[in-house]
Amino acid sequence: MVGAEALVRMLQAYKVTHMFGLCGDTSLPLYDVLARQDHGITHFLTRDERHAAYMADGYARVSGKPGVCEGPSGGGATYILPGVVEANESSIPVLAITSDVATTSRGRYPLTELDQTALFRPATKWNASLDDAARLPAMIRQAFRAMTTGRPGAVHLALPFNTQKSGTDPAEVWAEERHCTFPSERAGPDPDAIADAAAILGSARSAVAICGGGPVIAGAFDELKRLADLIELPIATTVSGQGALAETDPLAVGVVGSNGGNPATRAVIDGADVVLFIGCRAGSVTTERWRSPGKDKTIIHIDSDAMVIGANYPSAVAICADAKLALSALADALEAGAGVTAQDGIRRAQAAWDAKLADFAPLAASTETPIRPERVVATLARLLDDDAVIVADPGTPCPYFSAHYRWPRAGRNFITNRAHGALGYALAASMGAHAGRPGVKTVAVMGDGSFGFCCGELETLVRYRMPITCIVFSNATYGWIKAGQNAGFGGRFYNVDFNRTDHAAVASAFGVKSWRVEDPDDLETVLRQALGHDGPTLVDVISQPLHEAAAPVSEWVA
């Protein structure tokens, strides 16, 4: 068995069914094996490597399985890197395989030579070059172990050309099946820390929980709800934490922080005596640059990564553990205790929603032109089923959907790239999400700045006939930066505006059924047609720019 065949057999052993990537000359042996073998892996040919990584990211988020992407050496490795960085910093397991020049050619200036392991070292959880074909299966096992255990993350493997053609012992091809999904090998909490946390929560008067992406990754939905119901604990989330609890739950506060929060949700945090961070880094956006909550609060912090706990707030109790196991243990301890005080969470959460909805309702019904983003959000909320997946780019879509689309069920139904916020993520990630969860409607929402980063993948969308609906907020500007210049730099706009593009015409040229909407009264009819179509669709919405809008953003530079 040669190395390329061993690689494919190892992926098969780890129950990989989808792979996203782009061909290159150093990948020819691998592609030949993929062509010849009966392996059950669907390979999606993408139009560039960055989007292959974004697809693997979106796939992993909805499927609970590691995403796999691949690309060639040189430029392929540099192009795939942004998606790997985003996945790793978002705690999403993505395996990036980049083929490489032969080890015998190193240092002789072959075309596309690059020190791949040095390039990927700071951007991944684990990273290696498969220089020895005999060790390839063992290193694949190490990659899956690294991806799925502890804090999940992205890994990278360089695959030299000669390794792909060198011999490997077939007896070495086997998998650790517990690493086929994530998180695996969950770490339980320290009982003493749980007892201390239960004692603090048991005597609190106005505690609040802030959930990051950790509870969603851990699948801790039932455990979180049990804890919330037990002591009437209000549950706020970060943008990445949306879905930890259904936002229609009486104890759901919604998003807090400078992106998607508002004064009413901030008041819930500022009025708390105890703050329970769950799978949350307590970073600058979530805490409005570490001002909300203030440093006077009693902090309990649960996270699977010990380096996160105490990085920004002094912790009265540190619980380094999987969110699902920690929340279950904490609920058990509270249930076993006596005299637990209810935290008045239903009233506090309802007050936050009442204030937010009072501000949102007139904007959502507005007939102004250009069309207000709030109207798009409200219309989609009426039309989409509860199980729909929405993938949002940064810029215009993220704050509006985070603040105003009230997610009706717990689970991963909202995806956005909150680690580094690169434009052009949503289209590719929505394609990966559709591959991982094909039975539900997937919608990609983006600004027109993002459209320029990703529109080549519309051809991929058409080639695989994915029934994804794309919505472009078209305002001919890099809106977030223009809003920042408006708010913090005296409205001195510099190099943020570009020519308006007819995105519907561009998408139509790729074969996507498309519409352009300028009149708010046409919006619902067009969106209904687009969502109901059995193939890929795009709606180009001529919309209000962020610097003129009532965007739910308290600080443009966080």
Spell out the key features of this protein.
globular, 21 helices, 6-stranded parallel β-sheet, alpha/beta
Notes on the protein architecture:
The chain has helices at 3-13, 28-36, 49-63, 75-89, 116-120, 136-148, 161-165, 191-203, 214-218, 221-231, 263-270, 323-336, 345-364, 373-383, 397-404, 426-436, 448-454, 458-463, 479-488, 503-510, 520-532, and strands at residues 18-21, 42-45, 67-71, 94-100, 126-129, 155-160, 208-211, 235-237, 252-255, 274-278, 298-303, 317-320, 389-392, 414-416, 442-447, 469-474, 513-517, 537-542. With 558 residues, the chain is α/β, with parallel strands linked by helices. Strand 13 (389-392), helix 15 and strand 14 form a beta-alpha-beta unit. The termini are far apart.
Brief write-up:
The protein is an alpha/beta fold. Helices cover 39% and strands 15% of the residues. Strand 13 (389-392), helix 15 and strand 14 form a beta-alpha-beta unit.
Based on secondary structure, the structural category is alpha/beta
Q: Give the overall shape.
A: globular
Mean pLDDT: 97
* Main sheet properties: 6 strands, parallel
Strand % is 15-25%
Biggest sheet strand line-up: 2-1-3-4-6-5
Oligomeric state of shown chains? single chain
Provide a count of the helices: 21
Number of strands: 18
Radius of gyration from the CA trace?
Answer: 24 Å
Cα separation of the termini: 52 Å
Helix content: 25-40%
User: Which residues form runs of ≥5 with pLDDT under 50?
Assistant: none
Topology:
Layout: H1 3-13, E1 18-21, H2 28-36, E2 42-45, H3 49-63, E3 67-71, H4 75-89, E4 94-100, H5 116-120, E5 126-129, H6 136-148, E6 155-160, H7 161-165, H8 191-203, E7 208-211, H9 214-218, H10 221-231, E8 235-237, E9 252-255, H11 263-270, E10 274-278, E11 298-303, E12 317-320, H12 323-336, H13 345-364, H14 373-383, E13 389-392, H15 397-404, E14 414-416, H16 426-436, E15 442-447, H17 448-454, H18 458-463, E16 469-474, H19 479-488, H20 503-510, E17 513-517, H21 520-532, E18 537-542
Parallel strand pairs: 1-2, 1-3, 3-4, 4-6, 5-6, 7-8, 7-10, 8-9, 10-11, 11-12, 13-14, 13-15, 15-16, 16-18, 17-18
Helix pairs in contact: 1-2, 1-6, 3-4, 3-16, 8-12, 10-12, 11-13, 14-15, 14-21
